Amino acid sequence: MKKDDCIFCKIAAGEIPSNTIYEDSEFRVILDLGPASTGHALILPKNHYDDVCTLDRDLAAKVLPLAARIGEAMKKSLGCTGFNLVQNNGRSAGQTVFHFHVHVIPRYEDGPDMVSWTPGKPTAEEMAQTAEKIRSALV
Ligand code: AMP
Ligand code: ZN
Fold first, then answer.
1. Ligand 2 centre and the CA of 76: distance in Å?
2. Residue 116: what pLDDT?
3. Any catalytic annotation for residue 101?
4. How confident is the model at residue 43 (pLDDT cuts 50, 70, 90)?
5. pLDDT at residue number 1
6. Catalytic pick from 40, 48, 101, 103?
7. Which CATH number fits domain 7-137: 3.40.50.720, 3.30.428.10, 3.40.50.2000, 2.60.120.280?
8. Is the N or the C terminus of the chain less surrounded, counting Cβ atoms within 10 Å?
9. How many angstroms separate the Cα of 81 from the Cα of each of 37, 75, 118, 120?
């Protein structure tokens, strides 16, 4: 369940040192080396999954509760007032390490803008067509 050339497999296994803030038999949570804000953390499963599409479902069910615990600890300890959960799938979505992970990004009052976009203005017909395309592809 590990991938030989995967850096996050090695970090999760403790073979490469990291600033670990939480560990159990299934996950390691580390500080991101290039933090978007102070405390930016990554939740890594110890087993390898490329992305959310291949993530084991039982494991997936544990990810959000763990993210909430980490976020609460950040609010208590770092003085942030909120946090973003970010999870990238695929190169076009900004994924650079192809081992599933969730970013927990503390947000501070008056901190910089991030995780934002310019809202589009699709027509009602375009919206309905888009919704139908996705509905028809659901498995
Ligand atoms: P993503 O772009 O969603 O794939 O996120 C990958 C994240 O991993 C980036 O935020 C990097 O800063 C972070 N990262 C890459 N290598 C390491 C490492 N060795 N230790 C900690 N964080 C890392
Ligand atoms: Zn891996």
1. 31
2. 86
3. yes
4. very high
5. 86
6. 101
7. 3.30.428.10
8. C
9. 13, 6, 24, 29
